[in-house]
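Dear colleague,

Thank you for sharing your sequence with our group. We've completed the structure prediction you requested, and as agreed, I am returning the results in plain text so they can be pasted directly into your records. Please verify that the sequence below matches your submission; if there's any discrepancy, let me know and we will rerun it promptly.
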Amino acid sequence: MDIPAPADRTHLECEVLVVGGGTAGTMAAITAAERGADVILLEKAHVRHSGALAMGMDGVNNAVIPGKATPEDYVAEITRANDGVVNQRTIYQTATRGYDMVRRLERYGVKFEKNEHGDYAVRRVHRSGSYVLPMPEGKDVKKVLYRVLRRRDIREKVRIENRVMPVRVLTSEGRAVGVAGFDTRSGGFVTVAAGAVILATGACGRLGLPASGYLYGTYENPTNAGDGYAMAYHAGAELSGIECFQINPLIKDYNGPACAYVANPFGGYQVNADGERFVDCDYWSGQMMAEVAREIASARGPIYLKTSHLPDETLTALENILHTTERPTRGTFHAGRGHDYRTHDVEMHISEIGLCGGHSASGVWVDENGATTVPGLYAAGDLACVPHNYMIGAFVFGDLAGAHAAEHHHTPDGLAEDQIADAHELIYRPLRNPDGPPQQQVEYKLRRFVNDYVAPPKTARKLDIALETFERMRDEIASMGARTPHELMRCAEVTFIRDCAEMAARSSLLRTESRWGLYHDRADRPERDDDEWLYHLNLRKNAAGAMEFVKRPVEPYLVPVEGFTPCPAEPVLLGAYGTAGPARRRAGGRLAVEAIGRSPRILELLRLADGEPTLDQVTPYLADADPKVRRAAVATLTETAPRGVETALTRALADPHGTVRRAAATGLRELVEVLPATAEFGASLRALSGHPGEGQDGAADPVVRAAVLDVLRALRLGDAALFEAALADADTRVRIEAVRGLVALDDAERVALAADDRDREVRVWAARGLGVIGLPDGVPAVARLVADPDPLVRAAALEAFAGLGQALRGEPGLAETAVRALADPAWQVRVGAVRGLAAADPDQGAGPLVAALADPHLDVRKAAVLSLSGWAARPEVAAALHAALGDSDADVRAYARRALDAARADTAGVPARV
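Please find the predicted structure tokens below.
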């Protein structure tokens, strides 16, 4: 391709420019538009499928839901996880605004797991705080957001430019005024003038090299190469915590998450080769990763995600998440090794290093509104230094940045031609040397040096070698060759990676201590030094082009945290290091996007989905002779959700082809939060339920019948008679939805009818449901289920005792039943009995629970500690908990320690740590 002249460029203008169409960028664009700003959203891929959220998310890791957790608890937890070096004001934004964001996303159509009563089903994964909120349809999050972006009121204010990659933020008199970049399909040069710029480009996922050696086999999204880190740095913004790396647990030989957040709520856990839980640290932090690394290297390694003990139904549900939402190739990977979660636990390892604010603490320095130290420049999402911010934090700070930018943008006077020329040279120099070293070769070499000399454990000698190497590679990177726009993009990304590698090495060298566990493990400086280093280490590019460091004091905490006391001080300047380092489209026109596909009708639907199609526009495709077209039409309706979508999807439930019916069922479940709960819609669904009195024979497809019941329950359009009739359905999935519907109605009498179901899974749901309802009407059925021949049913029934509480007071024999169950040969039954005894009278339950602390199975002992926690003030319980501090299982030790700490705090009259 030819090199365009700097003046031969497409020039765009807006009030608010958002760079990056992922989680934070999409929300920033939506909010800025809602505040009345004229917005341009640039994405180097395509907004519909871009960012770390592109494949969806299995759950929210940090949902502070009222009644489940408090903002103060969450802020304290993140402060401890980050060894005290935090700006609590930013974390507090996520903690206090996260719940409203969850509800906002829900209004958009994002689904979060709820119980039968419509309450958020928040899970506890860590030992303190319940913050994890599963997302059963999490794979569709990005699709939902794109649907909002294409809504008419938003589309009128947001111009999306896909396939445009900025490489530099342009500034004027110290203020951000736009960007310079190029079209990754045509190669055309692009400049944008803006009143404010929001960077939301994600983590630097391609910093270290994966063990596989595959450049793009990274834990983080491999398209996130540190673009925003480099652009913010060259614009003069401060970055912070770049020495605090992101290192994650992952599946050995497969760079996918080990999924503790998914598997642990289902009953999975991490063990060493001896089958013991070994992590004493509470939060998934650098300290925890240090323990993981030590265990792998010890005689007790390797380590595993234990799943083989779980029942088949649970593993099927787990696979549905891990093999679809998380990584579609994960099932293929396990199958290729002949492994199955039922027979093989999953070997775990640790990832390559990266930079990420959302999962660690390395990012662009921002205030409570996402504003950086450069006026007019904002950062949000994994790029921003808001420690352990995760997905909800990305949404929150995207929203904050969008709102603030919309209110404080300034029209630029013009763009600096010298900066534009520099950006032009950065982009197109590989074309001048097409036979130069290929990008893949140079990037591999660069990232191998990162692994060898920057990855923990760090030493000053290795970091010095790294810096010498990165400086030497400037010329090699500048000599890379390219021939196509795609290769230009990859070459530009290598420059970003080199910038991030230098920042990481210099920051690691200056912080002369160890902190954050494995994230900043200095083998030559092994001790933490709070007197000298309870500070933020910030860096920036100074006027001479050198990397300058500032030691900033940690601001006084909003939430006091034991063990950390920030001291007021003035920022200290530590010094400066290094040196500065084909066909074109018509000006002002929309950037061309290539359509790829086979069926013309499906291509037409894809084009419709880019706008805001009406139901009438999509309806003809629902009648197409080709079931693939009809299925695509259903997908388009689900993505765009036009007025009347519920009627069309309901009709599609009766389609003659199974894939179409199931797509419609999936669509209704996905959109349930935004569907109208009208009597007419309810009647149309009831007609498909397949049960007497509904006016039609119903759907023959059990997937449809189950989906119908699920939607009726969620929208409160079903009644007890309907759900009771569904208890006689031939399909297990339908009967489970019937039980859930009756639980939502608190109808213990009818739920009890399922206690005699032929399928174990239905009986388990019935037992759990009766515990949730907690009414005396359920006690006789639970008493029957306690004697069930299946151990999992008995376990669920015994656990239901805790929910029935006062209702059991009139059934004294059931407590003795739970005590006898502590001798059951099935460990699951013993766990259920221990959990159920938590509701017993302490005089009756404390003794058996203390005895259960000697159970041979670690999960029984863990459950016993948790059940005893409320009685820790009793002398015999306190003595037993003290003995449990020496247990071989890390969870047992940790929960015993927490229970004793809470009891001491209660005695002293001070708040306990939760």
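Summary note from our side: The mean pLDDT is 90.

Kind regards,
the structure core
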